[in-house]
């Protein structure tokens, strides 16, 4: 059985900051075909999960993964980084055999 993706405390903390003082939204992480390496990450905010989503919860926050994307994200780590070049959610994916320089596109 494949391990589900994990979400770091830092990513849940950032979601908590985004949701502070308003109706909470969830972070959706999905895989789409395309990008310069064959697949790309689709990271966006959504109001509610779909019936068949995997829901990862921590610090009162939720991260959603659809069943089609789940095998591509097995064992991945969803994190948040705040660097000089910008702040963003990032994915450390052990299934990716190569990726582009910006880290949003990968191949398996």
From TrEMBL:
GO terms under biological process: iron-sulfur cluster assembly
Domain of life: Bacteria
Residue span, Core domain: 6-103
InterPro entries documented for this protein: ATAP, ATAP_core_dom, FeS_cluster_insertion_CS, HesB-like_dom_sf
GO molecular function terms noted in the UniProt entry: 2 iron, 2 sulfur cluster binding; 4 iron, 4 sulfur cluster binding; iron ion binding
Signal sequence extent: none
Name of this protein: Iron-sulfur cluster insertion protein ErpA
């Amino acid at each position: 059985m494949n391990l589900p993706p994990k979400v770091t405390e830092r990513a849940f903390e950032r979601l908590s900051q985004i949701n502070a003082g308003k109706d909470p939204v969830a972070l959706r992480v999905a895989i789409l075909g395309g990008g310069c390496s064959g697949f790309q990450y689709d990271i966006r905010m959504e109001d509610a999960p779909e019936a068949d989503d995997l829901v990862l919860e921590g610090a009162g926050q939720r991260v959603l993964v659809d069943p089609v994307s789940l095998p591509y994200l097995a064992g991945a780590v969803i994190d948040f980084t705040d660097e000089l070049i910008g702040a963003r959610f990032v994915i450390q994916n052990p299934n990716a055999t190569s990726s582009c320089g910006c880290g949003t596109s990968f191949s398996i």
